[in-house]
Amino acid sequence: MKSLYTNLFPILAAASLVAGQSAKLGQWDFVGHSGVSTMHGILSPGTNKVLFIERVELATEVTINGKPTYTVEYDLDTNTIRPLTTISNTFCSAGGYLMNGTVMNLGGAESSQQVDQGFNKIRMFTPCNDAKCDWWANNADLSVLRWYPSVEQLADGTLFVLGGANKGVAVNDAATNVPSYELFPPKGKGGAIPIDFLTETLPYNLYPSVHLLPDSNLFIMANVKSIIFDTTTFSKKVDLPVIPGPPRHYPLTGGSVILPLDPANNYEPEILVCGGADSLKATSKGENTCGRIKPLDKTPMWYMEEMPFGRLMPDIALLSDGEVMILNGCLKGTAGFGKGTDPVLTPILYNPTAKKGARMTQLQPSYIPRMYHSIAFTVPSGQLLVSGSNPNKNPTGEGPFPTDFRVEIFTPPFFFTGQPQPLIKQAPGEIKYGQKFEVEIETYSDKPKVSANILNSGFVTHSTHMSQRQIWLETEYKNGKLSLTAPPNGGVAPPGPYLMFVVENGVPSKAVWIMLGGK
Ligand SMILES: *[C@@H]1O[C@H](CO)[C@@H](O)[C@H](O)[C@H]1NC(C)=O
Ligand SMILES: [Cu+2]
User: Fold this and answer.
1) How far apart are CA 204 and CA 250, in angstroms?
2) What is the mean pLDDT of the chain?
3) Where does the secretion signal sit in this chain (predicted)?
4) Those residues with Cβ within 8 angstroms of residue 185's Cβ, 6 or more apart along the chain or in another chain
5) Model confidence pLDDT, tens digit, residues 313-348
6) pTM above the 0.85 mark?
7) Which of 47, 106, 126 to probe ligand 1 with, by most ligand atoms within 8 A of CB?
8) Between β-strands 49-53 and 27-33, what pairing exists: parallel, antiparallel or unpaired?
9) pLDDT tier for residue 85 given thresholds of 50, 70 and 90
10) For residues 216 and 218, what is the distance between their CA atoms, to the nearest angstrom?
11) How far apart are CA 210 and CA 161, in angstroms?
12) Residue 493 and residue 213: Cα distance in Å, rounded?
């Protein structure tokens, strides 16, 4: 039998020739092979590498000592993979960074191919640059089984783990629902603590949207409902208005993001929610609206906008220049194996600071459908990594949407202004809250207008970009000297690793990794 890997490769190489056109609308480049189907992805802090995480299943070309594995470290410099050990089934998991930069991946699915079940498992990865690090099992498990949970980092660095189902489901229901949260590391008595919101939002409450607000509380959304959840009392604080339009969560999957926070408006948070689908039918239509809300406003309201076309299963990624990209997904059907059709190949560039009606630009289309189980996020070069697509129960090179192993890099339009990327020559590796610090840079224009931001690209899976967050830094740039001020507290930016970008006249630098924490 010919393997999937060799089956697909020739076709892919030919397809890459399409790239390189219309740079003004951005550019797609096919750069490598992911080895595993990239259902989940996260940057490995301190490195130029990405962790690709799949599920345990029949076909894989990636082995260690002849045994298949389902997670790899992908090197963005060489576009090569290093197989990692799969210690429990990572299918349908969640994750994020601990405040010391260790990557955590938790939850998952049933035992398969002699790999342990992962529903209540916690897997850790301490990043390295010497190819010696691997996944290790945390000795304590989650309190309950969680398939399709979400994780968000809190102001004190703790990870908030929310919801899920106790087994794989097409649609959640009362019997499978896991309406609870827990903290890692555990606090107090620990354990799973009930949260009514996840009962009220059945059946569309899997991979719920969770975004940390600068007041340290959480914006939580599922289905059409959202609340502010107090992280001091751990109880509901505010019921926010219902979003117009259809439900926005699995299997009617939309996407959400907290827009870049800016000291210029005292870090006023705004949440953007886009896409979704209008029913469980095969003819279900991708939703074309986005809603924007300021949860901490006196009277929060959803302000609706229209995308040029509908989109189910969008990825909403923060870009290195502070804009937002809405991409991947499809126009018809729902999330789930074999349930989506009509891929949407044209990404939208969304400028959050532009006036309503002038925020969206259609970018260069890709030629690769990125359906169920695909990912996209910003990498240290300042470009966007796009990969995945596996709407098939077993990986296959056949059918309307073959399992896709192509890794693409999208170069956004702002890199094509003619001005080179500014260069970060020296920056501290660690910064403390409120600290003023200096960064040595090289600029390339006569009149450089310089700004800087820090970015967590998040743990990305199933259109959910967990802990994704971008914060503009207070900037002073005089006589070629750049001084920046770190965010004031963990509500604005939780402690941990971030990419830092310097932006000159709208053109971002390559990033350096920076550790934020302490007092
Ligand atoms: C980070 O913290 C975790 C949890 O406390 C710990 O197990 C791990 O060893 C730490 N990593 C480093 C590099 O210190
Ligand atoms: Cu899935």
Assistant:
1) 6
2) 93
3) 1-20
4) 158
5) 999 999 999 999 999 999 999 999 999 999 999 999
6) yes
7) 126
8) unpaired
9) very high
10) 7
11) 10
12) 9
Task: Examine residue 251 and say whether the peptide bond preceding it is cis (omega within 30 degrees of 0).
Answer: yes
251 has pLDDT over 80: yes
Phi, psi of 25 (to 5 degrees): -100, 15
State whether the beta carbon of 102 lies less than 6 angstroms from ligand 1.
Answer: yes
Structure tokens at 507: 């053109």
Q: Is the CB of 266 under 6 A from ligand 1?
A: no
Q: Probe ligand 1: pick from 47, 97, 98, max atoms within 8 Å of CB?
A: 98
pLDDT digit string (tens) for 23-75?
789 999 999 999 999 999 999 999 999 999 998 876 667 888 888 889 999 99
User: Which CATH class name applies to 2-416?
Assistant: mainly beta
Q: Are 460 and 41 within 8 A, CB to CB?
A: yes
Three-class SS of 130-199: CCCCCEEECCCCCCCCCECCEEEECCCCCEEEECCECCCCCCCCCCCECCEEEEECCCCCCCCEECCHHH
Residue 166: pLDDT over 60? yes
* Residue whose tokens read 């009392």: 233
With the most atoms of ligand 1 within 8 angstroms of its CB, the residue from 99, 100, 158 to mutate is 100
pLDDT of residue 519: 60
| CB 126 less than 6 A from any atom of ligand 1 | yes
User: Domain residues of the chain, as ranges?
Assistant: 2-416, 423-516
Residue type, 386: V
Q: Which fold has domain 423-516?
A: Immunoglobulin-like (2.60.40)
Q: To the nearest 10°, the Cα dihedral for 208, 209, 212, 213?
A: -130
Span from the CA of 458 to the centroid of ligand 1 (angstroms): 19
Kindly state the tokens that stand for 91.
């299918």
Task: Please report the atom of ligand 1 found closest to the CA of residue 138.
Answer: 7
Q: Across-strand partners of 325?
A: 317, 349
